[in-house]
Amino acid sequence: MSLINIGQLELKTVFHGTPGSPVILLIQGLGTPLTRWPTALIEQLGAAGFRVIAFDNRDIGLSTRMDVLGLPDIHQMMNMRSFASPFPGMLSALSALPVSIPYTLVDMAADAVGLLDALGIDAAHIVGASLGGMIAQLVATHYPERCLSLTSIMSSSGNPLLPPPTPAALHALFAPLPGARDEDSLIEDSIWRQKVLMSPEYPTPDEELRAMFTAEYRRGGFHPTGIIRQLSALLTAGDRRMQLMTIRVPTVVLHGAADPLINVACGRDTAAVIPNAEFRAIDGMGHDFPNALAGEFASAILSAAGRR
Question: For residue 306, what are the contacts with CB-CB under 8 A and spacing of at least 6?
């Protein structure tokens, strides 16, 4: 595990597989560290002959914290558009409003490309999940020469007409943090939020969730301001469909049919606007990475990479 300097930032990065092999770059989602990628998934990609690189996005885990940029007014953003409207639609509407944000998803896509630059990698197979899927899409549209294939997992195109999250999922995303900020309280808070989002047919046992969130807490500490800044980038991301239409690399879009946060229709829409994209829906999958589905994730990524 290394800290890789990319200008004003340092990105915590891990490497798996043989140096010199074709590279798969994994990009995680909102407030999610690189450690959330299933070990079994990484092992399967490595066994298929790929060099797998994962990193903590800016403002999460052990990468640079952007506190110098201050905090956006999330409440102002929320008040500009009612949650009675579809969540993806709110993202599109907010993108046209005069709100001040510390950085954008385009900036985060530039981070991923900057990491490739720093490592001397000309191009890679780009994989992103949730917010990371949006970032991966922007790598493919803004830096097409750096993207060999695209795998967009449980993400969206930003189409304003797509269905919203369930009320329970919205509550899990935006509910206030617990009053007590000790380790046990924060871990229990993370567990209940995750249980709202996780796959109904592939539930992760409580003890595994507790071990995962304990390890995350002790690895990267507690940094809610970073999540707020990432959220502001998400809330102003806008509709990417016109950009997605320009993608020419092999693309697989993978989505859980039971995703309560980003409805499966969002994945279908993403695949519909990317030329020749393959869409895969997994019954019983929510908005998480069940170990039991590691093979499904690997199959989607390897399908996109193999078509290259």
Answer: none
What does the pLDDT profile of the chain (308 residues) look like in tens digits?
799 999 999 999 999 999 999 999 999 999 999 999 999 999 999 999 999 999 999 999 999 999 999 988 776 666 554 333 334 444 444 444 456 799 999 999 999 999 999 999 999 999 999 999 999 999 999 999 999 999 999 999 999 999 999 999 999 999 999 999 999 999 999 999 999 999 999 999 999 999 999 999 999 988 999 999 999 999 899 999 999 999 999 999 999 999 999 999 999 999 999 999 999 999 999 999 999 999 999 999 999 999 97
DSSP element (H, E) containing 301: helix 294-307
Closest among 261, 227, 236 to 80, alpha carbons compared? 236
- From residue 287, alpha-carbon distances to 163, 172, 245 in Å are 15, 12, 25
d(CA 280, CA 225): 34
Q: 3-state class of 29 per DSSP? A: coil
Rounded to whole angstroms, the Cα distance separating 228 from 219 reads 20
Q: Could you give the CA distance from residue 20 to residue 240 in angstroms, rounded to a whole number?
A: 33
6 burial class (0-12, 13-18, 19+ CB within 10 angstroms)? buried
Rounded CA gap, 201 and 262, in Å?
17
The β-bridge partners of 153 are 129, 254
Q: Is 113 left (phi over 0), alpha (psi -120 to 50) or beta?
A: alpha
Strands (E), 200-277: 251-256
Residue 110 has φ and ψ, to the nearest 5°, of -65, -30
